[in-house]
Amino acid sequence: MVELTETERSADKKLTKKDLGKAFWIYQLGCELSNSYERLQSLVFCASMIPAIKKLYHDDEEAQREALKRHLAFFNTEGTIGASIQGISLAMEEEKANGAEISDTAITSIKTGLMGPLAGIGDSIIWAALMPIIISIFIPIAKNGSIIAGIGPLVIYTGITMYISWTLINKSYTLGRNSIITLLQDGKIKQVIYSANVMGMMMMGALSASYVTISSPMKLVVPGGATIVFQEILDQILKGVLPLSAVFIIYYYMLKKGPRYGVIISTIVIVSIVGAVLGIL
Q1: Beta strands in the chain (DSSP E)
Q2: pTM for this one?
Q3: φ, ψ for residue 39, nearest 5 deg
Q4: Separation between Cα atoms, residue 23 and residue 78, nearest integer Å
Q5: Measured at the alpha carbon of residue 88, what is the angle toward residues 86 and 89, in degrees to the nearest 5?
Q6: What φ, ψ does residue 277 adopt, rounded to 5°?
Q7: To 5 degrees, how large is the angle CA 158–CA 161–CA 164?
Q8: Fewer CB within a 10 Å sphere, N or C end of the chain?
Q9: How far is CA 88 from the centre of its chain?
Q10: pLDDT tens digit string along 153-188?
Q11: DSSP at 126
Q12: Phi-psi region of 226 (alpha: psi -120 to 50; beta: other; left: phi over 0)
């Protein structure tokens, strides 16, 4: 496969920062909104490539049609880190438009091969680590009734993820397809993912211990007037055993049945009402 040098690319058809920006904003604003059951994110990914495709193949309508077809193939990844694939695809389309021997299959294969690994990285870092950290910062503020708790996480999360995505699309476009492939082959990326998972689980554990509260008001009066308080006995066995048990039951259910949030919330409400009526919880 022949790659053109930066000098050769700049002398012919060349994408600009403005072109990258168009692709970036179209994808970022729609990557979680345009999903279809058949192709998931392919619709918005293809839409984000249209301005660049029209510029690169402005003199060849057939080439434009072929480019649109290959970017309508099934595609799904984590939106923030997935910007890397967008940058690589733009770089490859630019090389192809300038005469490099890049087949349609090569571009599609790069996208298909990277979307899974990058989704794993994005889910581990963005959703399992970054999101819990941001939420944990604002939960105490929310408990105090401040409106900042409703706005702050959205602003901070959006700012951080947009910065990461913009950096990745530019770096990936500049360095080309070999940038992410080299990163995935480097053993250090596994350490990053593992560390992010550990940090995310620590934050979720801390949040569970701090904000999941369950206690039992049950008491038993024994002959002689002594009163046995069940909650005190449970605390002597293991402090916070009831909320810990609830968290693990929900976690086990999600492992077996998946994230059926409606069922989980409904069950929590029903158990809480029944437990309160019976005087158990």
Answers
A1: 219-221, 227-229
A2: 0.64
A3: -130, 0
A4: 16
A5: 65
A6: -65, -40
A7: 145
A8: N
A9: 20
A10: 999 999 999 999 999 999 888 876 555 555 555 555
A11: I
A12: beta
